[in-house]
UniProtKB/TrEMBL annotation:
The keyword Repeat does not apply. This is Deoxyribose-phosphate aldolase. The active site is at residues 91, 153, 183. Its EC number is 4.1.2.4. Its main location: cytoplasm. The keyword Cytoplasm applies. Pathway: Carbohydrate degradation; 2-deoxy-D-ribose 1-phosphate degradation; D-glyceraldehyde 3-phosphate and acetaldehyde from 2-deoxy-alpha-D-ribose 1-phosphate: step 2/2. GO terms for molecular function: deoxyribose-phosphate aldolase activity. The gene is deoC.
Amino acid sequence: MALTRAELARYVDHTLLSPTASIEDVKALLDEASDLRTYSICVSPSMLPLPWPTGAVKVATVCGFPSGKHTAEVKAFEAAQSVASGADEVDMVIDIGRLKAGDAAHTEAEIRAVREATPGAVLKVIIESAALTDDEIVAACRAAEAAGADFVKTSTGYHPAGGASAHAVALMAGTVGGRLGVKASGGIRTHEAALAMIAAGATRLGLSGTRAVLDGAGVADGDY
C-alpha cells in the first residue's frame, strides 16, 4: 500500500519506555515527534506531567507495564494519576497469565476498572499477542470491547515471545471489526514492516525508531 511520509507519521505513537530514560531524553523525543509530526509520544508514567507544552502531539503513557501482574485497583489508580497529570491516552497491560488460564472474565473486569478510572482518555489494551493462541487473542479482544476500551494493542515490546505480527494484527482487526482501533507495536523497525501492519489492519503503530521507519519512504525530512 502507498502512504505519504506525512500519512504514515500520523499512525505513530513515538515511544520511549526505557527504564534508564531521563527527562532530557523525553524532551528530545517530543522535539523529534514535533519535527516528524507523529500522532503522539508514549512515555513512562513517572515522566508525567511533562514540563513543556506538546503542541499538536498527543501524550500517551502505559499502565501495569510491562508485566501486567498488578491488581486491577493498582492499574486503575496508576492510569487515573497519569490522566490527571496530562496523559491523553493510556496503554494498559492485561494479566496474560489469567487470560491464558481461561479467566477472560478477569481480563474484562480489570480493563473495565481502568476504563472507569479514565473517563475521556483513550484506552488501549496490550494483550501480548505473541504469547497467545489465536483463540486467546480473540478472547482478549472481546473482553477489551466488552469493557469499553478504544484499542487493542499487540505487544509491550518486552515479552520474550516477541512483538507484533501481521497475522495477529489481522486476527485482532477481524475480531473488533472496526469498532475498536488496533495498535501494532514491538519489533516494527522498517518502512516495509510498518506498511505490512497497516495493510493487516493496524490503525496505530508503536515505534521507537520512527525516523528510520519514515526515512524508508525515500522522502527527505520536511518534505510533507
